[in-house]
Write a structure and sequence with these properties.
The structure holds 2 protein chains of 2 kinds. By secondary structure, chain A is an alpha/beta fold. In chain A, 33% of the residues lie in helices and 27% in strands. Chain A folds into 3 domains: 165 residues, P-loop containing nucleotide triphosphate hydrolases (Rossmann fold), CATH 3.40.50; 71 residues, no CATH class; 164 residues, P-loop containing nucleotide triphosphate hydrolases (Rossmann fold). By secondary structure, chain B is mainly alpha-helical. Chain B has a single domain, classed as ABC transporter involved in vitamin B12 uptake, BtuC, CATH 1.10.3470. The longest helix of chain B is centred in the middle third of the chain and has 27 residues. The radius of gyration of chain B is 22 Å and the shape is globular. The chains are: A alpha/beta, B mainly alpha.
Chain lengths: 509, 399
């Protein structure tokens, strides 16, 4: 196979930081090339260099594409070459239709007047290629994330893509949507489209990638061929150390039942008559880590948030008991008083105040803990934050640093610190390792184990089944708003969980 | 090492110091220009007194507007509320003959009710504050016209006028000095200012010690002393100037007390902190157990009360209530808050910044008027200053 793209000796400096240092990347025509590396390793920077976000001259090194040296000044230059990047945060306009989004900035128009019949026809054509069967006039915001991702790809196809770059395309996707997306990549490959995929999900890389380039601390560590790919090897190269065990060892010390939920029913906040949670019951023991498995839309987050101060849904019925006594969790404040804490899956939107410094985020849920008669002690606040910075190993120059400047893993530690400062007995962790690199994941797991060892109870919601299997003492399986099964650590396997989900689908009472 | 520290510290506080330096520079500019062109002392006792009397209402409302804007909202109705509460005060005192002591709390309650009426829709029904208060702006301007029957009502009794034109009595008044035609010095005024200067430095030093005991790196010692020397110097200078004229205006005292209360509320109390959290990320605040609706409601009630206070001060200053009172005030107030460094999206902004922002606007109004610059140019210049201040902010952040 011929070389399509070669990036040679790329160096990129930011004030005070050498983000890329002599990175080499070689992509052959018609392959799917994966790029792996921890957060902050320089993957996204490299792709920004390739796509012209950082113009020629702002970096050192050469980009050789089809034998020519490219000197791009902007994204439009790279798009003209057929190099198209799909960012992690989707760049679709939610209020516009599929057709309008597909040809945004590239309209099917003559003299500025849009030819709608032709645009719709082309849209149908492109949607067919990505395996979507939606009317072209559908508002994009009404589609799920999985479908939106496919529309991004269709948009790339509309621009005659030859080198498609996907930055963590499946990070927000559910298992089956991810599968669809990966299948599509393989199909595009068959049609001659070359892809570069950045991903944290090693099993996916193993499935589709022909070769992998691993980047660590801004330099290329290795490029592996398909037959050399193994998860252990990738992890070793990514973190620079051997990680024999991806999940830390732990000897559970499980006590009596702490949290008990019975007959929990929740209705959709807007759509009348749509029940989101049906008669859910669960219990968690002291020192236990309990997992909740399920597909996207199974109702896991809805269950957790409705338990936590009725933050989701309406007409909620059911009882919550802590240590055998029924407790009132009807507002967040009451739920916190009862000893609950909920660490959200969407830390940027729901967990943190990004513009504020670390210490203010940590104290937010327990301002009483740093105040006397409503008057805040700034000194005590800093002391508390400093304590968590050390205990959690939050990597930052200081607790006055704004949270937005932290990496995903460190942000997650800030959210965890915030909730630990409320001294909860039960922590509900919703996708605690989403969007976090391998090294930080391991740290989060260690923190969870430590919390359990301290006698706290943990409910862990995760879409990554290996993580649930590796961490949990017991797993509840949810589907279509119901808890459809319960497996002990010994019984649980990915196959059994999937079987429970599939067997229960469509059999709602 | 210490110099590098200073630099880093100044860098992270550029905005605060920049504002104060801008104010000082503008004052200096006008002092020089006014002296050169029309040979008048810009910093004369009379002009300083005027400066505070003219701008007190903007500063008072800016304190409340900061809370509203920090919470992520806006209140466009304050100008009309100024007019309306002024009209209520006039009707009660002049037409109905109520005693001033009853009129003032009544007007404050009316303001609070107006704020509550608007805040209710914003907080609990989630109607955008822009719409609700735009409606309020029209409604209360209309009610002002209705209440005044389209005419001016006045004059007010002396005791009501004292709200705006009164001065603190001189407890150490020396009649002999006056009789001898000597420059009269208001002892009370000077004493209060001196005490204030000492308190500022003392509390600052206390806080420094406390921070140090908690292991917080304080601002560099030199910066601390320079900053406090400037603040204390300015306080004493202004106080002296006022003392040799007519003493401290009542309005200035109200202003100073309110500024201290609001600065304390926003920086030191849990409720104040929660307003910032809610403006920074409402959903995250809510999921942290903060009752966001109640706080938004409170911000609007508070704004209404302050607008009522401003309304009475304006009426007292004009010595009559007019249907046009307060027209366009909302723009001055909102501009002062943004010049003072608040963020359009909510979640940030400081009381000190807002007061300095309002003073910058006030000094420019006053200076340009003295120089005889037409109202047309004044508007243009004020607009550009607002734009420049916000551009400076955005540029600073993007660096």
């Amino acid at each position: 196979m011929a070389t399509l793209l070669e990036m040679r000796g790329i160096c990129k400096l930011f004030p005070g930081v050498r983000a890329l240092d002599q990175v080499n990347l070689n992509v052959e025509a018609g392959e799917i090339h994966a790029i792996c590396g921890e957060n902050g390793a320089g993957k996204s920077t490299l792709m920004k260099v390739l796509s012209g976000v950082y113009p020629h001259g702002s970096y050192e090194g050469d980009i050789i594409y089809e034998g020519r040296t490219l000197q791009m000044r902007s994204i439009s230059d790279s798009e003209r070459e057929g190099i198209i990047i799909i960012h992690q945060e989707l760049a679709l306009v939610p209020l516009l239709s599929i057709a309008e989004n597909l040809f945004l900035g590239n309209e099917v128009a003559k003299n500025g007047v849009i030819n709608w019949p032709q645009a719709f026809a082309k849209t149908r054509d492109l949607l067919g290629k990505v395996g979507l069967d939606e009317p072209p006039g559908t508002q994009v915001g009404k589609l799920g994330v999985g479908k939106q991702q496919l529309i991004e790809i269709a948009k790339a196809l509309a621009k005659d893509v030859r080198l498609l770059i996907l930055d963590e395309p499946t990070a927000a996707l559910q298992e089956n949507d991810s599968q669809k997306l990966l299948d599509l990549l393989l199909e595009l490959k068959a049609q001659g489209v070359t892809s570069i995929i950045i991903s944290h999900k090693l099993n996916e890389i193993g499935r589709v990638a022909d070769r992998i380039t691993i980047i660590r601390d801004g330099t290329t560590v290795s490029t592996l061929n398909r037959d050399e790919i193994s998860e252990d090897r990738i992890i070793r190269d990514m973190v620079g150390r051997d990680m024999a065990h991806r999940y830390p060892e732990r000897t559970p010390k499980i006590g009596e039942v702490l949290l008990q939920v019975q007959g929990w029913n929740v209705w959709h906040p807007e759509q009348k008559g749509r029940q989101m949670i049906r008669d859910a019951a669960l219990s968690v023991r002291k020192g236990e880590i309990v997992g909740i498995a399920g597909l996207m839309g199974a109702g896991r987050t809805e269950l957790a948030m409705s338990l936590f101060g009725r933050s989701y849904g309406r007409n909620i019925t059911g009882t919550v008991s802590m240590g055998g006594k029924v407790v009132d969790t009807s507002t967040v404040a009451k739920a916190v008083d009862a000893g609950l804490a909920y660490v959200t899956e969407d830390r940027k939107a729901l967990g943190l105040i990004l513009e504020e410094p670390i210490l203010r985020n940590i104290s937010l849920a327990n301002l009483a803990g740093i105040a006397a008669r409503g008057i805040i002690s700034h000194g005590r606040e800093a002391q508390v934050a400093e304590g968590y910075r050390k205990a959690m190993a939050i990597r930052t120059p200081g607790v006055h640093q704004k949270v937005m400047n932290l990496s995903g893993g460190n942000q997650q530690k800030v959210v965890l610190s915030k909730w630990l400062f409320t001294d909860p007995q039960v922590l509900i962790l919703d996708e605690p390792t989403r969007g976090i690199d391998v090294g930080a994941k391991f740290e989060i797991y260690n923190i969870m184990n430590q919390l359990a060892a301290d006698g706290r109870s943990i409910v862990m919601i995760s879409s990554e089944m290996p993580e649930l299997l590796g961490m949990c003492d017991r797993i509840y399986v949810m589907n279509e708003g119901r808890i459809v099964g319960e497996l002990s650590r010994a019984e649980a396997t990915q196959e059994r969980i999937m079987a429970m989900i599939l067997n229960s689908t469509g059999k709602a009472a | 090492m210490s110099e590098a520290n200073n630099k880093g510290y100044m860098g992270s506080h550029l905005r605060e110091y920049g504002m104060i330096m801008a104010l000082v520079a503008i004052v200096f500019f006008f002092t020089v220009i006014v002296r050169a062109t029309i040979d008048v002392d810009f910093l004369s006792a009379q002009n300083i007194t005027n400066l505070f009397l003219q701008n007190s209402y903007v500063i008072i409302m800016a304190l409340g507007m900061l809370l509203v804007i920090v919470a992520g909202h806006i209140d466009l109705s304050v100008g009309s509320v100024v007019g309306f509460t002024g009209a209520v005060a006039a009707v009660l005192t002049v037409n109905l003959g109520w005693p001033v002591i009853a009129v003032i709390p009544t007007c404050l309650i009316v303001g609070g009710l107006i704020g509550a009426a608007q805040g209710y829709w914003v907080a609990f029904w989630r109607i955008p504050s822009f719409i609700v208060t735009l409606a309020g702006m029209l409604v209360f301007r209309g009610l002002t016209l209705w209440l005044l029957n389209g005419q001016n009502i006045g004059p007010f009794p002396k005791s009501f006028q004292a709200l705006s034109t009164g001065f603190l009595p001189d407890l150490f008044g020396d009649a002999d000095q006056v009789a001898l035609g000597m420059e009269r010095l208001n002892g009370t005024g000077l004493l209060i200012v001196l005490i204030a200067a000492v308190v500022v430095i003392w509390t600052g030093w206390q806080k420094r010690q406390r921070d140090a005991s908690f292991g917080i790196t304080p601002e560099p010692t030199t910066v601390f002393w320079i900053r406090n020397a400037i603040v204390a110097g300015a306080l004493i200078f202004v106080g002296y100037k006022l003392a040799i004229f007519r003493g401290l205006p009542n309005v200035l005292m109200v202003l100073a007390v309110l500024t201290v209360i609001y600065a304390f509320f926003t920086e030191q109390t849990t409720s104040g902190r929660r307003i910032y959290a809610l403006g920074g990320n409402e959903k995250a605040a809510k999921l942290s157990g903060i009752k966001t609706e109640r706080l938004v409601f409170f911000c609007f009630v508070n704004m209404g009360v302050l607008a009522a206070l401003a309304g009475m001060i304006v009426a007292a200053r004009l010595n009559s209530s007019t249907p046009k009172a307060g027209v366009g005030f909302e723009l001055d107030v909102i501009a002062a808050v943004f010049i003072g460094g608040a963020s359009m999206t909510g979640g940030s902004g400081k009381i000190v910044g807002v007061v300095v922002g309002a003073l910058i606007m006030g000094v420019m109004n006053n200076g340009m008027s003295i120089l005889g610059i037409g109202i047309d140019y004044q508007q243009v210049i004020k607009g550009l200053v607002l734009l420049a201040a916000v551009i400076f902010d955005v540029y600073n952040k993007s660096k």
